[in-house]
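My hope is that you will study the record closing this message with an eye to the fold:
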Amino acid sequence: MSQITFLDRMVAWAAPEAGVRRALARRSFEALSAKTNDNSRGYDGAAKGRRTDGWKAAGTSADAEIAAASGLLRDRMRDLTRNNPHAAKAVSVLVNNIVGSGIIPRAATGDARLDETVDRLWTEWSAACDADGQLDIFGLQTLAVREMIEAGEVLIRRRPRRLSDGLAVPLQVQIIEADLLDNTRNGDLADGGRLLQGIEFDPLGRRRAYWLHAQHPGDAVVTMRRRLESLAIPASEVLHLYEKQRTQVRGVPWGTPVMRSLRDLDDWTQAELVRKKTEACVVGIVLGADEADQGIAPSVVDADGNRVEQFEPGLIAYARGGKDIRFNQPATTAGVGEWLRAQLHIVAAGFRMPYELLTGDLSQVNYSSIRAGLVEFRRLIDAVQWQIVIPVLCQPMWVWFCQAAWAAGKLPRPDIAVEWSPPRFEAVDPLKDAMADLLALRSGTMSLAQAIARQGHNPDAVLAEIAAMNAKIDALGLILDSDPRRVTKTGVMQADTTGQPVNPDT
């Protein structure tokens, strides 16, 4: 407890309020000092001492960190994806689960005829929507998501076309790699806006333009007919797809946390392989009779006396004065499998996926464990689909499509509501999942449209197909065991409202 000093009394006599504030401030300072000195009540992560002397943690902003490292991170991640099988598999697994066969839209205006018109027009347009003329809309989704994972970000540019180009809707889209974004464009603008890593912001902090190169800076052949400097493209014409982990303006590759681990694992694998091959090549060593002649000759020669520069299978090394042979026995390496499995667990954690999906190793799982692992992974995929891919990529492309179709006179209005159906997850046990869906339908906790959408299909299209098929079956007078209108799941004929079995002939 702090003591009131003579000076405190003098201050309080002259200015009572100031005296009180002085005393209270001293007590607050003493309490804070006591908490700081009490290690049991502080943060261990912020403690300073011998054990944390080498822990360097920069307090820079996300944009500052990305600006200094984004280019090198992209290059190294692409190199790993090209040459490291685990990195290639991780990227492939993420893309296949996020996009799969495609994230499918369906118009949801409430007008059946309008919805059918919009869906048919989308299907026709999506087959030729690629500005490069190679992919359909689902291929573009796959490429965009792959770039987001591998390079950290990707740009999608709107390309309006003329009516004379013969497209169902005069619009195409183009995938642009993040390398074309001019990250040398930085600084404040005269109107109060700013440039940050090639992205221009207005005074309110809204994206106004993207400064893009006309040609990839890493092209082997530079076309002089194209401008070397970057040009500003309005932000309304560009989509920027990346995962936002902080208040950052650009993204980083998803494999960034385990780049060094992947590189070290690759180096260790190659070194271990070379060691094993070297040991296996040397069949035996011919030793000398005297102790002075036990050393290996400075160079290895073959039977003809020619110097051998590389080890080959069946090689025999000769010592000076060799008279006796001793066969080589390669050393066994214990625990390699366990160590490799532990390292791959680290890699899988860095890519946020189960170890089994990264490696394909299912030797240590059962139904319960693999299902538990997939549940958490599917939550991640759902979050990426509904929080990143659909709102940032799919929905804006749908808006572009509707606006272009309306401007071309193909649609009555430009604002068409839409519902999205991501690809369904393959069931670990299809029978159990089907029974769970059936119970949910019968209990009223899930609609039939939701059940069909979970399978990755358009509910309206599926129900229309079922109705058409049922009408054709009834016209032919057929009774199928798979028809729930006629036969129960136990194989008994369904009864009508009078309690009599259904007879299609009456």
About this structure: Residues 1-34 form one domain.
